[in-house]
Predict the structure.
Amino acid sequence: MAEFDEKQLKAHIKGGDFLPVYLFYGDEAYLKKFYSDSLCEKAVGKDFLDFNFQVFDGKSLDMRDVTDAAIMMPMMSERRAVLVRDARLESLGEDNLAVLKAYLENPSPSTVLVFLQTSAEFSPAKAKAVSELVKKQGALCQLNKRKGNELIKPLISSASKQGCVLSADAANYLVSVAGDDFNVLINELSKVCHYAGGGEIRKEHIDEVVIKTDEAKIYDLTKYLLMKNFDKAYEVLNILLRQKTEPEYILGTIISAYVDMYRAKVSLTCGKGAEALSEAYSYGRLAFRLKNAARDASRLDLDTIRKCLDELSQADMRLKGSRDNPELILEQLMVKLFLVGQ
């Protein structure tokens, strides 16, 4: 019947014209939980959830229990809601599938049945039989990670509700250091707002309290090398290695940082801005990396960046094709990048 993205789902819930069954999936855990909860609450009514809302653990599921709950009449409310969390829909047995099919051929008009798949790995194609049943009577709801302004605007709004002012630049910086998982971002923003104590949130506030992703730490490492602060760069590398961060991931992210700088430097030399470069290389929600790269590239000339890329290429070949200690390869690379930058 329907396939909803976030915008369509939001309007659908607001409209209140509910379908018999929904299947929530995608790679954004926060949004899946938020909208599945909102759907159930709106369908039943906040004051009647205790009487008309039932949750099942799908990992040990008997579909008869679910359908029995679905055909029950609501108490003091127009509807009931039944939520099934993490059912193994890809490998649903024939008996369970038959029970679900029989129910959906004549679903209860007073029940909203919701399947919530919390794993980002779930795909309707892998659970084709169930997905087709849901589509006939209800909706597939795909909720993926927000991008660009889809992340920035709600962060600015959330900060405002907590008595703080978050600029677009500060919001972009928060995303760059904390990652694009919306649940993590909201939690980290709450910490920053509490730390700032109201007023404008500055970059220093974010640096003080936000837990950085490994990727953000590696970009810090690169930044310290460009600032000729070898001690700080080496300190970050040691932290990453103590955390058991894969050497291949560390090196790959450093390479990405220098490739960004090379692209930005060449683009600026040709009189092109970051926006044109973002479109040419499909950076999308990662466009902020090019702005940072353009800033960082100002510390080095084009020939120096090329030499750094040569060193990175050699380190990559050593890491993949030799028996040398990976940590030693990274430490030696740090020294070479620092010396080339000098």
User: Anything to note?
Assistant: The longest strand covers residues 80-85. The longest helix spans residues 247-269. The beta strands are 2-4, 21-25, 53-57, 80-85, 111-116, 139-142, 164-165, 199-200.
